[in-house]
Amino acid sequence: MTSLDVRDMLDLPDSGSARPAKKQKLTAPRPVLKGLAREVQNLSGDNPIAIVPEVSAFKKKRFGSRKPVAKWEQKPFKNSARDGDPLVLRHWRRKTERPPVPPVGEDGNVEMGEGVAPKAEEMVEDSTFAKYNVRVNVPEYTEDEYNAKLQNKDWTKLETDHLVGLAYEYDLRWPVIWDRYEPPLPAPDAPDSLLGLVLPPKIRTMEDLKARYYSVAATMMAERKPPIKMNSVEFNLHEVMSNFNPAIETARKKFAEGAFQRTKEEAREEESLLLELKRILARADKLNEERRELYARLESPPSTGNIGIYSSSQGLQQLLQQLMQASKKRKSLMGNEGISPAAGPSQQASFDRRDSSVRESISGPSGSNNNNNKKGPPPGPSERRQLTDEEERIYGVSRHERLGNSGPIYRHDKISKPVITKSSVQQTKIANVLNELEIPPRLIMPTVEVGEAYESLLQSINVLLDARKLADKLDGEIRIARQQKEEREKAARLEMEMGEALAEAGEGDEVGSGSSDSKTDEVGSGSSGSSDSKTEREKSVARSVRGGSVARSVSQGHKRSASVLSAASDKSTKKQRR
Amino acid sequence: MLDDGKAGKGASARGNSRRTENRTPGPVDSSTYLDLTVFIKEVDHSPPFVKVDDTTSRAHNGGLSTINLVGSADRHEVSAIILDPGYSSVRAGFAGEDTPKSFVNSHYGVSDAGKFTFGDDAIHNPLAGLEIRNPMSKEGIVEDWDTATQLWEYAITSRLTSFKQSDPRTNGLNDPSEHAMDVGEVEEGERTLGEHPLLMTETAWNTPKNREKAIEVAMESWGCPAFWLARNSVMAAFGGGKATSLVIDVGASTASVISIHDGLILKKSVQKSPIAGNWLSSQLRALFASTEPKVNLVPHYAIASKTPVDAGAPAQATYRKYETKIPDSFRALQEERVLTEFKESVVQVWNGMGRLNTVNANGVSNSEYVKSQPGRVFEFPDGANQMWGVERMSVAEGLFDERAALPVPNEPALAKAQTIPEMVRQSLAAVDIDLRPHLLGNVVVTGGTTLINGFTDRLHNELTAMYPGARVKIQAAGLTAERRFGSWIGGSILGSLGTFHQMWISRKEYEEFGVNVVEKRCK
């Protein structure tokens, strides 16, 4: 229906343009428009709306590609997860165009089929699913190892073998292992059967099986690799396995069983009890809260806050403002006189923010304030689910002291720092050690774990270098001591020669050495001390040679005390004496 | 214990029950082994199956078609054949399809001349004078291997492999009763199965000897390149989209309740009883004998014509006379078909609160309540029809309540341990406590007899009453075909997975280790 028809019906005068002319106009867009567009067009009447017909170009493209149909063929494939079994199955694969392979072309393929077959067998593709074939690792042990480490009075080797075999076969699915575990009968020539007794097979619980398996696995793990050398994952596994306690597990299962077999009434009762408990706890919280508030009102608020901030004049001013604010709130009697107009509004604003940190840091403790803070919503982090330690390990959550005392640092410093801070001599030494271990000075893949390992490695290198340094030092000292000893022996020989001449003077030398001995005591012990005493001794020998028999009798008493004081020098003297 | 990535994804849906399970040491548990869980997970992603347990979506998109499967990422078709023999029917088809292409009645006919005829097209002909037999025992395992082999061969060759124009005898288009299968068929089978790996199902209580026989038949008689023997309960669990589940399978000859953990049956949990479709038929016969007036069960083939009669009135039908004597076994099979019809359209399980004979809150027993409700009319082939009220529920009540079972002459009374709730209880009692909540959350119901009206509702009621603390979730396919062919569908899923192809027992392995390779491999 057009507007013309409406006019016609209502006997309205014709709007002017002739009917056939209009029709002529309308015919042009009409065939293009379809559906809703056409109806809209019709509604518009004399003043046609410009409707742009939708061009559906994609329909043309449908027939655009005139490619030949994709060809598929049944291709043989093997599965490398089948342990070398040559089963070749066939599956459909898109035919790939490889011109060089069929020299005759498409038609020749049929005839060629037989001839090409052996060649094709060789390059049979492997199943893409073979990689999913992963077996669980179970402990392996030899007869000797079993006898040495794994003996158990409850388990024979046969049974243990059977258990480990099942564990491998069923990939450690314990319910299945327990279900399928049947104690193997001992071989007829086994010593047990000589008695003629057939022992009733032991009924083993899943906990027994687990305990045995884990103990075997943990023992063999420690045997293959000492716990000190294990990495953290292995060590944790070892810990878990060696700490398995079947008693706890049994008790847990008993509880689980009890919980599982609750009747409906019991379940409902427990639920209601839990609800009750919750209610009581909530009420207790409220009660405590009220009580605390009451106490806070009764007692003067203890000044737990830091009064240091009030020590300056500015701090005092703040305190004054704060107190006035508090009293104003209580009675709103006090005027504004104490506050400077500039500071007023801003302070007001900060005070009105109930749980702003600004306020918390400056406000003195007052009962009502504390309550307000407690009633507020808990701070953000606690809303997040707290991960347990285990979960953190699983998800790889680690916490870093990023902003330590020294401010922000680059993480790579962690690697370079231990090296750079050393002296250049040390650096080259460390580099040498790393070279020796074939570890690049800059890590290729510095993950957290690798970084940790690297750090511990550097630490041990430092220890090593320290030890080496000490060893060198000690070596040097030993060498010196040896030289000294030789010299001393030389001197002793000299002395002996002289002693024959001056028999009396040999003892007299102790007079001088008495004081020198006490001196060496201060200097220190060990070889360094002895070298000092040596020089002293030489001097004193010379002196005594020169001095002759001066004050011979006095030296006796001194000698004794001196020898007590310095064991080191004493030894050297004795050596010398000999 | 860490959950490995793949299992973890799937496990998240299982909810809280998983948490209590097996949290003992041994992160070794988490190794990414190839397990059957992975198989199921892959099925979940694969587009053609969309979601294995989502029955409605499959119904709408016209089911799983083979066209999409080729070249799909997870699927890996090697044109394996899945064979799922049961007491009442043999299901066979290609892996990756959603229903078996070949569905053959397990009953076969033996003519006077001793020739065998197979298939529904042939065995229901009263003129042939066929003796009806079944190669399967009452426990659902093969008794007569020679015939079973021929029957399966028929199931495979008639629809799946040898679709050849040249041989009209076996393509199922002609009347095979006139052309009995001859010895030449065996050679035919040998050639045709030569390219297809065969995945066969078996019951959980199959004997080792039978299993060895199965691989022998597949390898020696049919010449399969590869073979695998799977438990039908595990397959049903896979068909339900679960790797760990409690499978309640109520078929024709046996009902079984079996716990499955990660695609492996727990042998201690296997429970079976004869309370299944055939038992229900015997209940029906007992009911028909005890009603007043007695219901005369006359199969269709014996009726020449009938005239409509009022409800409860005696039938007015003319009976067909046969010159040859119709064997009793033939009549029994035909009667069974009528009973099946009756079971499908009338029989119902009480699915309200409690049991049929318990008294509800108003002091009225449930059976009284049912009596007050309108019944259902069933017209027998001879025209006799009757309204079935509370009887239609009382016949099936024995599935859940042994005291409600009707006494059947010459058969021992039902024991409590044979009812389905009791079997569930015993099955669960034989598995680890950590597993039980998980199993109850993944109950898979399969088998044709579970299609009785109200069965899953009742089962859910019984289980929640038995385990009030646990969350019971029953997974029962909504489509009739999926419920009946649950284990075949599971086999179809398994056989079309890329990761399964390393599991096949190849011909070489068979030749190397002999028949007992099946005991070693198919656990």
Notes on the protein architecture:
The complex is a heterodimer of chains A (578) and B (523). Chain A has 578 residues and is mainly alpha-helical. Chain A is built from 26 helices and three strands. The longest helix of chain A has 54 residues. The radius of gyration of chain A is 49 Å and the shape is extended. The C terminus of chain A is likely disordered. Chain B is of the alpha+beta class. In chain B, 33% of the residues lie in helices and 15% in strands. In chain B, the strands form five sheets. Chain B has a six-stranded mixed beta sheet with strand order 3-2-1-7-8-19, with helices on both faces. In chain B, strands 9, 10, 11, 12, 17 and 18 form a six-stranded mixed beta sheet that branches. In chain B, strand 15 and strand 16 form a beta hairpin. In chain B, helix 8 packs across helix 17 and helix 13 packs across helix 15. Chain B is globular. The two termini of chain B are 26 Å apart. At the A-B interface, strand 2, helix 8, helix 10, helix 11 and helix 12 of A face helix 18 of B. Chain A: Its main location: nucleus. Chain A: Pfam families: SANT_DAMP1_like (PF16282). Chain A: GO terms for molecular function: transcription corepressor activity. Chain A: Belongs to the SWC4 family. Chain A: This is SWR1-complex protein 4.
Category from helices, strands and their pairing of chain A: mainly alpha
Radius of gyration of chain A: 49 Å
- Helix content estimate of chain B: 25-40%
Low-confidence stretches of chain A: 21-29, 99-122, 190-196, 333-381, 508-534, 540-578
Main sheet: strand order of chain B: 3-2-1-7-8-19
What overall form of chain A do the CA principal axes indicate? Answer: extended
Gross morphology of chain B is globular
Low-pLDDT segments, ≥5 res of chain B: 1-73, 178-190
Major sheet attributes of chain B: 6 strands, mixed
Number of helices of chain A: 26
Q: Which terms summarize this structure?
A:
heterodimer; A: three-stranded mixed sheet; 3 strands; 61% helix; B: 523 residues; alpha+beta; six-stranded mixed sheet; 15% strand; disordered N terminus
